[in-house]
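quick one
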Amino acid sequence: MRFHVLTLFPDMIVNGMHTSITGRAIERGLIGLNTVDIRNYADNKHMRVDDYPYGGGAGMVMQAEPVYRAFEAVKEHISHPVRVVYLTPQGRVFNQEMAGELAGEEELVFLCGHYEGIDERVLEEIVTDPVSIGDYVLTGGELPAMVMMDAISRLVPGVLHNEESAVGESFQGYLLEYPQYSRPAVWREKAVPEVLLSGHHANVERWRREQSVLRTAKWRPDLLENAELTPKEREMLN
Ligand code: ADE
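structure w/ adenine:
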């Protein structure tokens, strides 16, 4: 997987992505990261890439030409059609299913906006997937792009050490994950649930499944509609 990020703040992307698991994946060559500073494609000597909005109103708009040129520069390194994700609160809301779908691509381009947005004409030309990471407004597309790249990266084979950890977790099967515990067995008078110390594998699995179902019902009941529950589990919830 190779990510290309068109941004006014490449340092933010580089610093964030070169940390922790994504950083390790980049070093090991499992993930490629190419950041493109849109400002380098400004068409004036002041290196300005924004201007006032036609029709008036607050804020500035990123101009079409620098964004288009930055994209053209990226496209030179890609031979086939590529999906271009534009981070915007107006997009389709990102979820685990979308992460899985995008993880199947060989290359992805992320376009990060700032100010009051980007000139609509260049968006019409290059964007294939407008995506939001949730119903709130951020100052720019960099954090959303990193959120998406993080979620996608961990689905790329080899990125996680333990191949198991990408399956059977929250949102797989529309259930939240069961609670986890580690040593000590008693911490500040709070004991680890007895069953986890029993060594009885089937009982542990049963307990974890029940915890997943109960936890989802308590914190994310909206997910239960799509969850695959046994008739017995449905009954337990009623
Ligand atoms: N840009 C600003 N807010 C955003 C959001 N919630 N999702 C994606 N891009 C954004």
